[in-house]
Protein: enoyl-CoA hydratase
Amino acid sequence: MIFNGDAFSVTLGTDGIAELKFDLKNESINKFNRDAITELKQAVEAIAASSEVKGVIVTSAKESFVVGADITEFGAMFALSEEEIVSDLLKTHGIFNSLEDLEVPTVTAINGICLGGGFELALATDYRLMAPAAKVGLPEVKLGIFPGFGGTVRLSRLIGADNAIEWICSGSEKRANDALKDGAVDGVVELDGLTAAARQMALRAANGELDFRARKQEKKAELQLNNIEGMMAFETAKGFVAAKAGPHYPAPVTAIKAIQKHASQTRDQAVETEARGFAKVAKTKVAENLIGLFLKDQYLKKTAKKWQAEAADVKKAAVLGAGIMGGGIAYQSASKHIPILMKDINEAGIKLGLDEAAKLTSKQVERGRLKTMDMATILNDIRPTLSYGDFGDVDVVVEAVVENPKIKKSVLAEAEGQIGQDKVLASNTSTISITELSTALKRPENFCGMHFFNPVHRMPLVEVIRGQKTSDQTVATVVAYAQKLGKTPIVVNDCPGFLVNRILFPYFGGFAMLVRDGVDFQRIDKVMEKFGWPMGPAYLMDVVGIDTGVHAQEVMAAGFPDRMAQDFTSAIQVMYEHKRYGQKSSVGFYRYELDKKGKQKKATDPESYELIKPVQTAEVEMTDEDIIARMMIPLCLETVRCLEDGIVSTAAEADMGLVYGIGFPPFRGGALKYIDDMGVAEFLAQAEKFADLGALYQPTAKLAEMAKNNETFF
Structure:
């Protein structure tokens, strides 16, 4: 044993090949925290000091190779000044460089997931072998930063600038064959022979069969591009990536600029260039907020895990009501290997649900994510039925019929009589009180809400709604089922609209008042999309369905009449009265036509303006900043109320619900983080400016108290 620590060990084989093994104690995964980096330095120094070492293989004792850096340490690091961050990074670069500079050949055996700093460690060695199921990548741009342990330098020299830019700016994980094709790894070897193959490769290099010194020199030299090639590669990439990333995500373009700058530099200069570019993006609010979202997501996963002990195992599910939503739920369950019954009252509904499931699986096959046999397996796990005959062994039933309390109560009561005494019923309602629906049931303790967002296969959030009589085991079982479906569950308490829709409708209320005051709805859409929303409120209402929106608005107004009841006829109501329901009827605020790919494309419809003229009772001068404030204040204040009312337990859950449920701009971190970043006092001052608009714009007493005490949500 040459070295033995809490993260790294080095053992020397009789063949002279040293194994540098990463095995972070008391952790299920390997990640680069400060202690691990310090130990890596000591381990490499121990290898360099041994005259018996002929070569080195780098391995992992975990199922994953290395998942990356310890993101929980980013906050403290990024709070430093830019110069301090650069200095800190250069120390780590010195360690990776010393591994690369060893006088003996080095080979990494990538046995599993190898991302971020883990892949940068692998890049510092001369050769890389990879198991077929392993994945590699540099996903840092998803956190608002880019690779900071030499990834931009080494990868660009190994696979070329074009490929490196694609890898780094997409942040995607690469499968073994793709990594081999691009030249990022040197071979793909079955897992059970991987370490032996790495050892053999190190021996071959040590014996002169492989020119490992040329490999070292290649990564330490300048990037082999002439001026014209460089101009073509970098300027074209910057334009393309900037258009794709958008103005709110600077890291991808900054990464390209760093690669462009250090292309003409040797390694030791290049890593400093990378470190300086990294420090700039690390100090942005975007990085702070995206890293914050990652940590909040980890918190949600840990919170959901706490329910596992009480959860009943879901081996078979059922969905009541086929159609688009029912078909989406059925597909999601079957795709995660949980067989599901799909019941409807007529053949037409069944066909619609099966068509939806078939469409979703077909798309996966077309994209190469599923094999044809997998598609058949998924569709075979969806069993359509017009009766309750096979419901005796179902563990969870999800009701997804029309959003009408009378119909839902009738269907739920009927279903309750067909399932086991201890089995769970859940409603996919988006607004109707779970407590109210439970009055139709004999066992309300076995009932809760399970609110999916549309489209089911894409939207990550599931709201698990606890009614007044819902038991902990019921909540736990539905949370566990949601996780099995690959969703992120958030447990919320019952109220009109629950969490996400309760917060969304004040946002639509702000929109309705802006249109009433004479603001062009297309201008509002453009301003809010520029702010960062995936679509503006008029377009969003068309996508949700204006009939659905009007129904939900009525529920919200009944539940919160002080601020959500409207004393004017809104443009949304006008669209509804003229049966302009949005995309589902091909016309709403916009008109919709199918493009060549069969997707609905929106176009301006002059008739919309004529219809809403009578309800535009004012003509208020408005800046873009005023539009943003009038849209965001009601949404943010309702989020505050949900937290204060105990609808959601934590600020983290509230913010993640909005990001995952309605596409709140991730780079802004969520509604409560948005208030924090503005400053609670400044947010209140902004709300005060619009206080005459009514209760939607009036803050809670507790929020005012927070401002006085300089408190924050995070």
The chain has three domains: 3-283, 314-494, 505-544+551-568+616-708. The domain at 314-494 is CATH 3.40.50.720 (Rossmann fold). The mean pLDDT is 95. The chain has 31 helices and 20 strands.
